[in-house]
Amino acid sequence: MNRFAELLDRLVLTPSRNGKLTLLTDYFRSVEDPDRGLALAAITGDLSIAAVKPAMLRALVIERMDPVLFGYSCDYVGDLAETVSLVWPQPAGHIPNDHPTLAEVVGKLQAASRSDGPKVLARLLDDASISARFAIIKLVTGGLRIGVSARLAKQALADLGKVDVAEIEELWHGLTPPYTELFAWLEGKADKPRSAALALFRPVMLSNAVDDGDLEKLDHADYAAEWKWDGIRVQAVCEGGVRRLYSRTGDDVSGAFPDLAAAMNFEAALDGELLVGDPREATGTFSDLQQRLNRKSVSPKIQQQYPAFMRCYDALQIDGEDLRALPFAVRRKRLEAFVKTLDPGRFDLSPLVAFPDWEALERLRQAPPHPIIEGVMLKRWDSPYLAGRPKGPWFKWKRDPHTIDAVLMYAQRGHGKRSSFYSDYTFGVWSGPVGAEELVPVGKAYFGFTDEELREIDKYVRDNTIERFGPVRSVRADRENGLVLEVAFEGLNRSTRHKSGVAMRFPRISRLRWDKPAAEADRIETLQALLDG
Amino acid sequence: MFNAMRASDLLKSRPEGLYCPPGDFFIDPVRSVERALITHGHSDHARSGHRSVLATQETLDIMGLRYGEDFAGTTQAALLGETTDINGVAITFHPAGHVLGSAQICVERNGLRIVASGDYKRQKDATCLPFEPIRCDVFITEATFGLPVFRHPPDHEEIARVLKSAAQFPERSHLIGAYALGKAQRVMRLLRDAGYDRPIYIHGALAKLSDYYQSQGVDLGSLEPATVESGAKADFTGAIVIGPPSAFADRWARRFPDPISCFASGWMRIRQRAKQGGVELPLIISDHADWDELIITIKETGAQEIWVTHGREEALVRWCELEGIAARPLHLVGYEDEGD
Fold it and tell me: Cβ contacts (< 8 Å) between B280 and chain A: which residues?
């Protein structure tokens, strides 16, 4: 338990991806079964333990200590789980059980009935160290919130076994905690687990971005082109009555799209884009799609207002036949015939785009016929469906990003190599009436600049600081003074969480405009027009 | 029988600090005064410019290093456990376990004894003498970590985490933020006790005080300046570097390869504190008493009355009420826990 608690403590404060991977692989390497598998399940959200409500946790503490002192403590710390882990009084004369293992803790929690749950929890807290108490409370209150995605955990497993992460993703849904056979394979002690489970995820084929000069070397006749839809890449798999909708990284998202899942009454594995609207009439924008994302439950009203459908790109399997080794041209024919048999309100075909040469395609790319198209995809007619991101067969050619001139408002210190640099920038644009303009923050970016530019901005920040809040500096920014940043971004969403009402997608610094006076930076109306467009 | 004198006639707070009217002296005054008694060398307790100063020899030495030899008109070294008379008030210094030279000051007159403990801790610390509980009528305690959430773990466990991290990330350097007086030397000593025998690189601000500790018999092993002249970036690969916390936000830190920022402080108990400060590896190592140490110390002094100063007074006062001990906050201004 203590090793798991220590892992959580480190992960939550480690910002870098590589650092997190090292911590995870070291943990998986040094901890034995079944603890490591249970830890993995806790991180990927696959561990089921009956939840304990915060009110009950509070009641358990109040039975054991002065409520006034507990109140002072909670006010100071701000987080209930953390406060309880710190103030929990060890019963007088109690000798803690010699460091319970994660498996013991999970076993006791899973075996507890509804009525003796609180007592079991209290007993576990009596036996645990402060960090372990925090970990136990996090397990029972749900949501570790340590900044580690299931995908990252799978990458750590791949690193541990020196295998491709696609192999882990493909196996994942056929495995259950504590994943003993998975670890045995990764450590070379057993064969790769074979799964009899149905409707497993197939690793997705990804594309590379078109770089300058790439196209000149390619013959356009070798490639099919299709629109790149700006929704969510999904894989719909139905096998022997099991239906699953997977995200690009193999997370099962069926629960969030029950309307689409209900229409998955076929025997196949299809690759496509999840969008909202009715494909026969109109495709919704990204803002519409957002109404369906990151929700725990989807009300019938929302399902009706923003129905989900799938625009199909590829067929990996149809009626039990694996098509992945066939050329794209053949798979495409099979897909076209197959999609005709599906519910037309929930499935349609992503159309191919005919083009006589690269110049013609370039014109289409720059002026796509629908706002939710973010560019074109190029797929070699003869390409098999390969896991991962092979170089050559598939390319994505995005429309040029939007850019805006914004003024630097706040800068925050980075981490690791950047820990002495102000490297995370919040920038704003002008709003309000002429003569009384104010900067309103519209986004935050921490890449896009060179190391040399980073040094220059850092110096600027240090020389123009007007206020400090911990690692953040407020930078002088008014009509006469300020550093203008050209910010590139992929799109804009409406946001109720930001004062400006907009949130940028993939913002990055594209140029430093030392030459441009702050007063000439863009106004919020420029962004609003983009939103409405 | 005469009534014993009232405690507030023996010591009371004034804008300059804690004042003893019959003895006509201040304890840890924050402004220049005629006569000052000083508990320890942290700059919020030990200021320069007093006419005369009574403190332990180590505290006087430390003040001299920090402010220059003429930091006070006259100085007198207090010997631990030996009583001095000042205008009919008996003064005795006792070790406080906070930093090298730190002392509690016991003030006694007409059978009334008040102990001003200054800053103190109860965890063992190889760089200074351990705290001695003194029986008294009134005990003046700090409350820097005066909330039940502050429970300091054993310091050797914290140091073990640095060494584990250094083994996990051999390509990076570990930068430990630690205050220049006391904490920095304690961290060095703990590293040595854990068997770490490579040179420890230190920021220039730590050099004088660390040399002084070594001269007083505290073995800190090989310390090398973390200057660019002493090596290129690659030479700091895998190194442990100690500096004042402020230096890590500074350009100074750029000479180290992909540093992991660590901070040795009792405040690191609270995750959000670590997060806000950009600390990746918090080390809960404190030179102040934690909640459990505060309450055990109050009990051991047997004091009937507790005066609580700098920190979270209200929780400790509440605890005393629940225990049936008279307690009140002593509103002294100007102390900023430099030591943690």
Answer: 13-15, 19, 415
